[in-house]
Amino acid sequence: MKRSTGKDRSVTRTWRPATQAVRAGTWRSEQGETSEALFLTSGFSYDNAETAEARFRGEDPGMTYSRLQNPTVAMLEERIAVMDGAEACRVQATGMAAMTTALLCQLSAGDHVVAARAAFGSCRWLVDQLLPRFGIATTTIDARDNAAWEAAIRPNTKVFFFETPANPTMDIVDLAFVCGLAKSRGITTVVDNAFCTAALQRPIEYGADVVAYSATKLMDGQGRVLAGAVTGSEEFINSVLLPFQRNTGPNLSPFNAWVVLKGLETLDLRVKRQSENALAVGRFLEGRVPRISHPGLPSHPQHNLAMQQMDACGSIFSFEVEDREQAFAVLNALTLIDISNNIGDSRSLMCHNASTTHYSVSAEARAEMGVSEGMLRINVGLEDPQDVIDDLDQALAAAGL
Ligand SMILES: *Cc1c(COP(=O)(O)O)cnc(C)c1O
Fold first, then answer.
1. How far is the CA of 376 from the centre of ligand 1 (A)?
2. Residue 368 maps to which CATH number?
């Protein structure tokens, strides 16, 4: 196996993002294949016993076992690291495996975590339910409020954990401020960048230490596989995360890694077009629905900050109708857009978060983070935006809007 283009990472790092998404991290076997090879193998064999010994000693760079290394998985890891501007990356079986690994690998009993209260339901479960069971204290705050981050810090605060934009409220966190504050206090920031990917937002440029992904969403982008990724410094990934991952095994299968590699080839194209489409759909909905939370529209209270940090608004936003009954009526009248809780797909998808993605979050926590009974979240896909608008137009009318 050898690198196909850009002899080493110092070259791929100078490429522009769209080029990196197609080519970074590509290794070729002696066959010279153009598309990345799929190494669907759990183990590797050795020419002799001495080579096996040398590989386990780390003196021979070859591979030993796919929980430890796999060529297809390694290609994906290198591509994501380069795109993020990170020194290193490891991929996991799902976005939640990535979040759990990124947090548990560095936390111990007695530590304290400050987290954004507006977050994906399972991320809230980690913070509210899992970490406290292991003696890790957690505080959830309104992450839009810079002063709230500072006020929540305790002497034992080890990690700041948040997503921006947040799922599904579209709250924006000030990356430069929060990452800068963390750095000045020796706290590690873990940013869930699933809604943007490196194609729209690179938190490491703002001083983030660790970036975690659900690659299920925009990276695959076609609703096929579950996948996750964590990027950061060589020191964090190799010395802190890797021992945890190798010994607990939340690994991504080579097949799913290969599918995500194929997804990344079109990432730049898709997120830009989907952002344009989402802006058109948002403009249509504004004024037609009681409330809309869309980072690309000036009506979003943090529109300027969002547009500073993000290259485009992304494919996802939320809006509100009166109540759960009206939200269900809108969903049930859709003819093109699917009722689905997935996001980042090239298909337009819509869901009622309070009864699906945030079902496991208590009603009080939902109210506090702003997930109302009338909230609907939409992922705008690659269809002609006018067809999406026409579908919403008739569905809203059917629901009395
Ligand atoms: C979907 C999602 C996750 C979880 O990812 P999976 O791949 O479904 O495990 C985590 N964070 C955010 C913001 C998400 O949207």
1. 17
2. 3.90.1150.10
